Amino acid sequence: MQQRCMNLEKLFNPKSIAIVGASEEDGKVGNVITKNLLNLGYAGEVFLVNPKREEILGEKCYKSIVEIEKDVDLAIVAIPAKLVNGVVLESAQKVKNFVIISAGFAETSEEGKKREEELARIAKENDLNILGPNCLGFIIPKLKLNASFASGMPEAGKISFVSQSGALAVAFMDKAAKEGMKFSNLVSVGNKMRIAEAEVLKYLEKDPDTRIIGMYLEGIKSGSNFLETASRVAREKPIIVLKAGKTEKAQKAISSHTGALAGSDEIISAVLEKAGVLRAENLEDFFNMLNLADNLREMTGENVAVVTNAGGPGVLTTDAFFEKEIKLAELGRETKRKLEEFLPEESSLENPVDMLGDAREDRYEKTLEIIGEDENIHSIICVLTPQDQTPVDKIAEKIIEFSAKGGSACGGKNKTAKNVMTVFIGGQRVEEAVKKMRASGIYNFSYPEQAVRTLDNLYRWEMFKKRKDKIGENLVNPKRKEKAEKIINTAKAEGRTALYFSESRDLVEMYGINAAEFVEIFSEARENPRAKLLENSKSLALGFPAVLKVDSDRVLHKTDKKGIVLNIKSKKDLEKAVAEMRLGFPGSRLVVQPMAEIQTELILGVKNDPMFGSILVYGLGGIYTEVFKMVEFLVPPVSLAQAEESLLKGKLKFLFRETRGQKAYNLEEIAKILVALGFLAGENPQIREFDINPLLVYNNGKPVVAVDVKVLI
Questions:
Q1: How many secondary structure helices (H) and strands (E) does the chain include?
Q2: What is the extent of the structural domain holding 526?
């Protein structure tokens, strides 16, 4: 149902609208919607539907939609939940687009869930577009169309806002009005029964009035559909997501609120990063990113210059660049020479450029002109504190003039054009200047950290657009896939839920992953030459010290169950360990491996997420994996460049640089294993869970080796 291609043009651009539940009583949802459609400038026809009234607010009232003689593009339904399904079914042949405002569906109770399931069936059988249920509605400012029970009409602009929470959407619009934010669409999706975030994204992708997309999400309806759609749309328009549900308690609240399935927060972050979607940490970040994106020119590079009239804020701004993609630029020699000619001797000619506390508008103007001609500078952050001698308004005017010329003294959009943003720190003394700059398309941040973080996020989106490695399916190797299926099907036929180590080893080696040497010891009841350990010359050839492990699908965490014996130093000790292991795990296979040198242990695996399918997991391994939780997530397919980037930026980045005489580990070697796991996940969807723990890695030239491989099916 979610994969069908919906035509939402008549839903969001209707020529005629029926309001089911229209009301004359102040305060009722049906009354607010009626007034919004009649009084705010909507040019289409509006039909009021209420079986108890002949007339509402001076307009004719119909007893049902089917009584309306003319075509109806959209029906807005605001009646008790128990009546909704009957109305939709009755109207389904006349109207194909519905907004269900009514609450009382899957978000409330088991009865509500059944009601929503029935509504979904009606929609599917009659090919209906339904927004909601349990939603605020939508607003299209350009059309003066407020098809919601939120009051007012935002200014028309280029930002589309999609929200899973109607209450948050109302608060968002109120704050946006104060900030001067302008919108192309505001859409509340509610329970997302029929139209979810992916369907709205597909509509906004083709909407010429939408340049930026902001989304508040509590859950994601169809993971694969969202990932595919978002990754395509994000290459043309920035998508900024505020995703709730970072904690277990928050996820429980989401479930009771909208009936949404909230996935692992780390996996959500990995999916958004894969798709090129920017994730806001909080509401403040969300507003800042949308506002700056709306005012920003295309970013041509990462180099930023900071000009300030105060040393302290300059230092704080410098600190904010730590571990960011954007960086403080090195000022050119000619730039420094020109600055030195007019700035006071005590000024700093480095970046940030400290013009000192007595800097007036002429000093800001001249400094900006000189930096504007430096082709190595791509963006400029102007930091100001309102000191006694600071003419705040006049400085703001000079910044506005500079930005209007293209951010350079030459003027216009040329190769030296700069993005300009400000950090005017203060309250009443900077308030009017901030308003003037905002009206001129210059966004002001309250604090330096906000400016740097927001600019960095938008720079990362610009870099994503330019990447060649787009999302796609792994190239399946048919012969390898067939061999893997044969191994897995054999285990399934025997009623096992996990592969034996010998099978797991064969599987990973198909994908180029080196696994430890081993010898299997079968149950004593089986007639097999390998059953007698001490007569098997191969087992002795492995040498000592050795490791003995139980190999059973009923024992997955060997350390916890005492299913592993380490550092066995002799034939006698091995014989004793085998006897004890057989008592503890009668009938189970045992595996002997050489005791490998341990330098660094990693965990690598594949998690089958219910929302997004196969997810790669990697991080610090060994027995402390769940203690330290130093893990990262990747969404396959993974290119070598993506794997290397993840390793260099993630929690394990310390492994790939020299530290206190320790050599760096081989980045490409580990990255290739992550790429191989992407292929393994893509070719073997029947694997429920997979991990290598530990994968032993070395920085002395020794090859990596997987000593324990778990494959659940």
A1: 23, 29
A2: 517-595
pTM: 0.89
Q: What is the pLDDT of residues 317-327, one digit of tens each?
A: 999 999 999 99
Angle between helices 478-493 and 501-510 in degrees, nearest 10? 170
| Residue 581 located in a structural domain | yes
CATH assignment of the domain containing 417: 3.40.50.261
Q: Tokens standing for 212?
A: 């930026």
Residue with tokens 């005012």: 295
Give the sign of the dihedral formed by CA 491, CA 496, CA 497, CA 499.
negative
Which CATH number do you get for residue 530?
3.30.1490.20
3-state class of 197 per DSSP?
A: helix
Query: What are the C-alpha distances in Å from 118 to residues 86, 88, 106, 114, 413?
Result: 10, 11, 11, 6, 56
The whole-angstrom separation of Cα 612 and Cα 456 is 27
Taking Cα atoms as reference points, which of 263, 14, 258 lies closest to residue 136?
A: 258
Kindly calculate the radius of gyration of the chain based on its CA atoms and give it in whole angstroms. Answer: 32
> Domain boundary at 234, 269, 292, which?
292
- pLDDT averaged over every residue in the chain: 90
* DSSP letter, residue 617: E
Return the residue matching tokens 């081989």. 666
583-595: buried (b, 16+ CB within 10 Å) or exposed (e) per residue? eebeebbbbbbbb
Query: Which pLDDT score, from 0 to 100, does residue 470 have?
Result: 52
Indicate whether 307 and 405 sit together in one domain.
yes
Distance CA(359)–CA(78), nearest Å, equals 59
One-character DSSP codes across 529-568: GGGSGGG-HHHHHT-SSEEEEEEBTTB--TTTTT-EEEEE
Same domain flag for 568 and 443: no
Confidence of residue 253 (pLDDT cuts 50, 70, 90): low
| All residues at 6 or more sequence positions from 651 whose CB lies less than 8 Å from its CB, including other chains | 619, 620, 630, 631, 632
Mean pLDDT over 140-148 rounds to 98
The average pLDDT across 364-375 equals: 95
Check: CB of residue 12 under 8 Å from CB of residue 40. no
Residue 555 neighbours by CB under 8 Å, 6+ apart? 561, 563, 585, 588
3-state SS track over 431-493? HHHHHHHHHCCCCECCCHHHHHHHHHHHHHHHHHHHCCCCCCCCCCCHHHHHHHHHHHHHHHH
The whole-angstrom separation of Cα 57 and Cα 61 is: 10
More confident residue, 654 or 257: 654
Instruction: Report the SS3 class of residue 173.
Output: helix
What tokens were used for 685? 């969807």
Give a yes or no: residue 474 inside a domain.
no
CA angle 233, 614, 673 (to 5 degrees): 105
The answer to whether the beta carbons of residues 682 and 606 sit under 8 Å apart is no
The per-residue pLDDT for range 101-142, each reduced to its tens digit, is 999 999 999 999 999 999 999 999 999 999 999 999 999 999
The total domain count for the chain is: 4
Helix (H, G, I), strand (E, B) or coil at 228: helix
Residue that is last in its domain, among 544, 578, 595: 595
CA distance 661 to 649: 21
Beginning with the edge strand found earlier in the chain, give each strand of the sheet holding 589-594 in spatial order: 519-521, 589-594, 546-551, 564-568
Residue 77 shares a structural domain with residue 50: yes
DSSP state letters, 93-105: TT--EEEE----S
Distances in whole angstroms, Cα of residue 300 to Cα of each of 304, 312, 410, 451: 11, 29, 17, 18
- Enclosing H/E stretch for 573: helix 571-584
